[in-house]
Amino acid sequence: MLCPRKCGAARSIQRGVCGADDQVRVAKIMLHQWEEPFISGTRGSGTVFFSGCNLGCVYCQNHEIRDGGIGEVYDVAALADAYLKLQQDGAHNINLVTAAPYVPDVAESLRLAKALGLTIPVVYNSSGYECVEAIHSLEGLVDIYLPDYKYITPLLAQKFSTAPDYAAIASPAITEMFRQVGDLVLDETGVAKRGLVIRHLILPGCVDDSRKVLDEIVRILPLTTHISLMSQYTPQVYTTEFPLNRKITQREYDRVISYALSLGLHNILLQTRDSAKSIFTPQFTEQI
């Protein structure tokens, strides 16, 4: 019952909709250089990729791990040690990617790591499809929330992520994230130390829905909210049908940018379209 799916799986017996069982599985731990500049900085973001996801988007770049079967088992102490090792290696932050299936264990591991000397910021890197109660349980443990806001239109959310209620779930979850950490704050070197940044991946043929996402952000959050408008959509193995069988055009990207500016949003991170390459996707077949 950790996530909006409420699948009720007894994970010691069966996997949840997210693919997770009763053990935390980590697919990869790395210093990630390809996040937003204020997340990766100069030394990299200390990223922990968890296996499993409650959305299963057809265009997911991390589809190898979304079903929860890939990865090594980590208990709470091992997770805490991993965070501390990343800090020792120079990471600007600890970046928890798709940790939703494991929130209680992740919260406990963060408490332990902080007691043992973890001082760098913690980033919660999320699909946005989260229960408010789960996000509330992370208060005081997470410094930076980095959620997606994927869709407004239920038909698109159902077709691409089998989650027609996506917007109804994401808006209150992101509102809770903002309540906890507020607007983005950078340190003297330009690296994030606290706050909310919303990511929106623009999908081909879906500019109208992108506009609706921006409308909703303006409705629930201040105009100072930081938004990362992503042009990096890359067709994947499951996206051979129209409209997801191509990259977005420059005109599509420019239309979304123009609309964001027309709404009064001004803390917008833009992305060059040459980011739409599979080379920027971590490889999960390697050893952790």
- Could you give the order of the helices and strands? EHEEHEHEHEHHEEHEHE
What class, by secondary structure content?
alpha/beta
Q: What proportion strand?
A: 15-25%
CATH fold descriptor of one domain? TIM Barrel
- What do the pLDDT scores average to? 92
Number of helices: 8
CATH architecture of one domain: Alpha-Beta Barrel
The top-level CATH class of one domain is: Alpha Beta
β-strand number: 10
CATH homologous superfamily title of one domain: Aldolase class I
Write down the overall geometry.
Answer: globular
Radius of gyration: 18 Å
Unreliable stretches (pLDDT < 50, length at least 5) are: 276-288
Summarize the biggest pleated sheet.
Answer: 10 strands, mixed
Characteristics:
288 residues; alpha/beta; TIM Barrel; 10-stranded mixed β-sheet; 8 helices; 30% helix; 17% strand; disordered C terminus
Tell me about this structure.
The structure is a single chain. By secondary structure, this protein is of the alpha/beta class. The protein is 30% helix and 17% strand. Strands 1, 2, 3, 4, 5, 6, 7, 8, 9 and 10 form a ten-stranded mixed sheet that branches. Helix 7 packs parallel to helix 8. The longest helix is centred in the middle third of the chain and has 16 residues, at 166-181.
